[in-house]
Amino acid sequence: xxxxxxxxxxxxxxxxxxxxxxxxxxxxxxxxxxxxxxxxxxxxxxxxxxxxxxxxxxxxxxxxxxxxxxxxxxxxxxxxxxxxxxxxxxxxxxxxxxxxxxxxxxxxxxxxxxxxxxxxxxxxxxxxxxxxxxxxxxxxxxxxxxxxxxxxxxxxxxxxxxxxxxxxxxxxxxxxxxxxxxxxxxxxxxxxxxxxxxxxxxxxxxxxxxxxxxxxxxxxxxxxxxxxxxxxxxxxxxxxxxxxxxxxxxxxxxxxxxxxxxxxxxxxxxxxxxxxxxxxxxxxxxxxxxxxxxxxxxxxxxxxxxxxxxxxxxxxxxxxxxxxxxxxxxxxxxxxxxxxxxxxxxxxxxxxxxxxxxxxxxxxxxxxxxxxxxxxxxxxxxxxxxxxxxxxxxxxxxxxxxxxxxxxxxxxxxxxxxxxxxxxxxxxxxxxxxxxxxxxxxxxxxxxxxxxxxxxxxxxxxxxxxxxxxxxxxxxxxxxxxxxxxxxxxxxxxxxxxxxxxxxxxxxxxxxxxxxxxxxxxxxxxxxxxxxxxxxxxxxxxxxxxxxxxxxxxxxxxxxxxxxxxxxxxxxxxxxxxxxxxxxxxxxxxxxxxxxxxxxxxxxxxxxxx
Length: 610
Known about the structure:
This protein is α+β, with helices and mostly antiparallel strands. Helix content is 32%, strand content 23%. α4 (136-158) runs antiparallel to α6 (246-264), α4 crosses α20 (556-564) and α16 packs parallel to α18 (514-523).
């Protein structure tokens, strides 16, 4: 018989009754019943109930142990009485009567419990992550992550892609986030950088004659943590393809994303589904106008409406606040709240206004409650609509599609600010009114991103998304854009995949021609010397014949986070850092000794006080 086990703790079934078996695992839970001791023994695969009779020596061996001690038991498989079968456990129809037991490792007092998974402070959980990972939910999440990555690899190979590995030590590159720098021991005063993404390498692979590349790529960015972004490092499904249009990218990647989500949508038996129709394609401008976001959650049926025209003339509205905002170039955006008056009290409306001021740092969120008028029809006694002329109110209600029993909120200000608040309010209202469709993954492509935007801080035109994207219309469109207005009207072959309001990926058809690239940078105010200095390696490669190419890079962490229904990306990451980018378990980052610094020709400077 094997030294540690003949079966795993999730393997035994009724057909094994009568066998003598050996199991090894962690002492998960202990229960005493009339002198007989029951222990749930746990390993990676599951739980098995083990029965310890006080007449056997094994009882004394295990009785004194703390939970999470590691033991090996040997005994006979018995069938449970029908009334005692645990249908929630794969091994719930059997138990093992233990004859012998040995201790492999005795556990000290635990800093946090494994059984039951009570909420515990984050610093304790991260410091003792190896214990936290023994908990059922986190353990399942990590298995899910592994299975998702395996499925992605299989599906990518099935689509004709080949996996390649790109360098981890590379050159610093201005890609929108801070680099992690690595000092060179050989070349004093010079530094490598960890890649923010394999962007330039994967494009150079296309220039090298490879065709359909993918990689489960580690990426490193020195940026702050968020609920859906780890500080320091993350993984993405990095993809690039040669001789493709935007449509070709969609046709190759959509089946992979759909297939992965269909495969794991119901892994936790919540009955979640992926609709069968193709992913919806929404131009950026339409997404902003309807949803106030380029990451719309399509489970929410609410759509915004630009109602600026109804408030421009305060002689028809009696509401001068919005008229003044409009006169200054602002917009008024309406967010419907169907049946809110019928189902909610005034407190709901007031709380939404407080939320806008506190959480969104906005001046406020106007609202109106629509009720049946005494003489018939619909009116509102709230200030925003109270003094509307009857025919003006009727036209307003016809456009918004609202009536008695409904509510409506208003976001007013500069267009960008108004839509930002309206988009966030749309999400919150949908949640508060229970309008979010449950147990479904709704995908969309966001397309036709603007090539440029106006930088308010620097008072200039600059790139809005990705400077290396191919502009729609190519060189001719760039040369024709001689005014700021024309530049802002340019669109790029850029696209995002969004699922349930979470951006999974950004991608683009690349600008593979040096003449178009130099012109694109020129329109943003960057001379050729800047492009040559910052991106000379790629530009030179393009001068020797580059194929049209494009790609995308879905975030693996976010995919798993959605499938696991996790609220924080730490719950799908094996060994995450805390919010301050510290690894509490391993003590990183940490000081290094003077000998190491001397070897790198580095001297620590005094801390500069700001």
